[in-house]
Protein: Malonyl CoA-acyl carrier protein transacylase
Amino acid sequence: MGKTAFLFPGQGSQAVGMGKAAFDEEARVREVFAQADEILGFSLSRLCFEGPEEELRLTANAQPAILTVSVALSRLVEDEGLKPDYVAGHSLGEYSALAAVGALTFEDAVRTVRQRGLFMEEAVPAGKGSMSAVIGLDREAVDRVCSEVSEQVGVVAPANYNCPGQLVISGEKEAVDAAGEKALEAGARRVIPLSVSGPFHSSLMQPAADRMEEVLARLEIRDARVPVVANVSARPRTGADDIRRSLVEQVVSPVLWEDSVRRMAEEGVDTFVEIGPGNVLTGLVRKIQRGVTAVSIQDGESLRKALEKLS
Structure:
């Protein structure tokens, strides 16, 4: 019998209207949104359901919004008796994963990712940093380009190893632009600038990592009921101290997503269930690991379809 992993999306998956169908159908979902609204002191539910999009996209709003939708949906999945053998989340999604397996309370998770979003927004002056997706170039070539440009121009480094031929680079705007040009010369098919508010998962985020370290030191983190595959190492973790350390390092380290999915497959996972807005991770899993089942759950209807497919 194969194993199951639950996956939780990161920033960029937000969309106005997310969670609304599940909210309308399910009291469990309404409870989670009511909790989030109360903890944050503003109507996150209204922002998720009605926007405006440019406000929802702000890092300090997008992070608690995606986490709230993801955790609410994970409660529905739990109610159906579907249980994971492993969990993982992409960047911010790691907090959703930790909340889903009892390492963090939902209250602490939503409060913490709101702070994380603010710290990340404030770490680098607007316009100084940027991120770009590099399509169609292998990771060794991207690593090489980044290290050459870092020596000549400024800070740029891989930020997300998403799947074969799809990486994201991050750093000082001038260096990211130069690395993008060099990547095209080296054979990349496309380089796509991302609309983000900062150079996430690069060394420029150190001020945010330092502030997160203080927040996480005071936070009650429990041992996880299920192994959490950490972004920074692509290794399963259950111990509270390991989890705390990973969350601090995560702010300035690349997301090893491709490695994480491969590691879970090596551990016997053949079913990947994405829980939260969008289906980006489902698409990545299919590109990383052939022959596995990958489904995404965004509302009650997709939950029912997923259960049919998995039964």
In short: Strands lie at 3-8, 86-89, 129-135, 156-163, 166-172, 190-193, 228-229, 236-237, 269-275, 293-297.
